[in-house]
Amino acid sequence: MNIYQEAAKQIVDSHYCVAFTGAGISVESGIPPFRGRNGLWNKYDPKTFEIEYFLQDTARAWEIIRDIFYDLFGHVLPNTAHYALAEMEQRGLLKSVITQNIDNLHKDAGNTDVYEFHGSLKQIICMNCGQKVNVAQVDMNHLPPTCFTCGGLMKPDVVFFGEAIPQYAASKSIDASQKADCMILIGTTGTVAPANTLPSRAKAGGTTIIEINPDPSEYTDRITDIFIQDNATRAMEHLMEAIDELI
Ligand code: APR
After folding, report:
1. Which residues form the Deacetylase sirtuin-type domain (predicted)?
2. Taking the alpha carbons of 195, 197, 203, 204 in that order, is the dihedral positive or negative?
3. Which domain, by its residues, includes 3?
4. What's the rounded Cα separation, in Å, for the pair 62 and 148?
5. Average per-residue pLDDT in the chain?
6. Would you state the pLDDT for residue 187?
7. Closest ligand 1 atom to the C-alpha of 41?
8. What is the number of structural domains in the chain?
9. 215 CB under 6 A from ligand 1?
């Protein structure tokens, strides 16, 4: 049995399989990772994404966010790996996706049970009254945007360094990690807490960990049971072929 057949058998035999994804799954959609070769943190100072900086220099922070996340990456599309996870959900093989990504590509691909641990760029939120609007309503030539309801300052509905994880995403992600008997890690270094505790929490509960990554991560030697060392799109193509052979 090859590694894809092994992984496929674990997934098909599982009762509650979840995916845990990081920036690597979106690299082949054109979004660079944060770390490693051509990582965003090699070009931009992560300080820019701290909530203190955002509040101190709001106009500058919004310009950088616009330049990176809306101008550069605002028009990217899901790739084969995103669509494979959506197909797995449709076929009843995957219960949910816990993602660290803010690019909305899992929902664009068709997954319906997606827990966005770090929020999503698709909306902006008022820091005063909590009103959320679709980012398409923002005039990116007049930043920072203010709330239509109360005039308060609005920010992308994503978790800045120093901010709390959204309660809904946190509780659903923890619940899914505890229920999972199979977890597929795709494209994450596993370096950022508290998101990075979810796979370890699952492993502690006896979950089989399948990992897809061209490079080893914090998980590979510690909790990974099946390590598929490849890019997400090729790995997911082979995995779906192996699943089709089983069912
Ligand atoms: N397919 C699969 N994985 C890939 C690919 C690819 N084509 N290309 C790169 N990778 C892997 C890298 O080997 C690395 O392990 O994706 C991972 C990207 O790691 P990070 O950039 O650290 O992304 P992530 O783990 O999601 O970061 C977690 O850090 O900066 C914060 O909030 C940000 O959500 C992010 C968090």
Report:
1. 1-247
2. negative
3. 1-30+77-118+165-247
4. 18
5. 96
6. 98
7. 30
8. 1
9. yes
